[in-house]
Amino acid sequence: MGADADRKIVLVTRRTRLEELIAKYHTLAQAKFYVEHLGADFSDYQKEHETYLAEKRRAVQTLEAWGRYQILHRDFLPNFIFGPADIVVALGQDGLVANTMKYLDGQPLVGLNPEPARWDGILLPFRPEDVAQVLPEVGADRRATRSVTMAEARLSDGQSLLAVNDLFIGPRGHSSALYEIAYQGRTELQSSSGLIVATGMGSTAWMKSIVTGSMAISAAVRGSPPADYRAMAWDSPELVFAVREPFPSRASQVGIVYGKVDVREPLRLRSRMPESGVIFSDGMEVDFLRFTAGMEAVIAPAQRSGRLVV
């Protein structure tokens, strides 16, 4: 495929729902029995699995013609060291692209949609059959990319965590989140079900659900139409935060519930949760930092940003 083929391709893959069921129930027969016992259609799991494997084979055939490549399962992302010249390809869904991006440092990321009839693929503009055309253009830096702002939480003990879509700060489970929040020169103690801090990309996801729901409730109480929600650009230099279900009491306030932060004025939180406090990113509860009593978290846009090939 040309002189650029000396750049290594890293193909990131995921388990299908069927593979996850087999891992849990040990055999295909047990997985089928479990699904059908609940009245669900097992053939849908099989179709998704077969389609994903077929599209994976299609992509690998192209990579074999390219030259240097490596297949990486998403579970190994936290410990994998990407080379600065690597080109990374993620074989969908959208969540896999987001989860992959936060482990990159400037490497271009190509999102492949294995089944457009099933997945909308906002972050998956290509199909596996497009790889043969796209890779040479990416390798020669002739393909456009979109910059994606990421969020970063830094703890007072030196640990940090990146997020492409959003960070959740709160309790593990259904207890209350207890913390001190500092924003724009104001400080207060709060009790809530946690905070969401979203990037521009994340403003179209979990944050949109929280804000539109809050606006609809407020409009219903006032008896007026809800306001329009506007998401931020993916490369916005700001993050937006929202407090979920803040509870007013003698010991907790609700004055700071929404706002935008940037590198000059980050959001600061100090945990008051003895055991259950966590910070996790992009909906991945296995990818978390412990945020227990006394620890401070400073949250701002990350210095590094993602590069999504378009």
Which keywords apply here?
alpha+beta, Rossmann fold, 6-stranded antiparallel sheet, 2 domains, 16 strands, 310 residues, 6 helices, Tumour Suppressor Smad4, 10-stranded mixed sheet
Can you describe this structure in just a few lines?
With 310 residues, the chain is an alpha+beta fold. The protein folds into two domains: 3-143, Rossmann fold; 149-303, Tumour Suppressor Smad4, CATH 2.60.200.
Written description of the protein model:
The chain has 310 residues and is an alpha+beta fold. The protein folds into 2 domains: 3-143, Rossmann fold, CATH 3.40.50; 149-303, Probable inorganic polyphosphate/atp-NAD kinase, domain 2 (Tumour Suppressor Smad4, Sandwich), CATH 2.60.200. Helix content is 25%, strand content 32%. It is built from 6 helices and 16 strands. The strands form 2 sheets. Strands 1, 2, 3, 4, 5, 6, 8, 9, 13 and 16 form a 10-stranded mixed sheet that branches. Strand 3 (87-91), helix 4 and strand 4 (108-112) form a beta-alpha-beta unit. Helix 1 (17-25) packs across helix 2 (28-37). It is globular and about 65 Å long. The two termini are 20 Å apart. The mean pLDDT is 94.
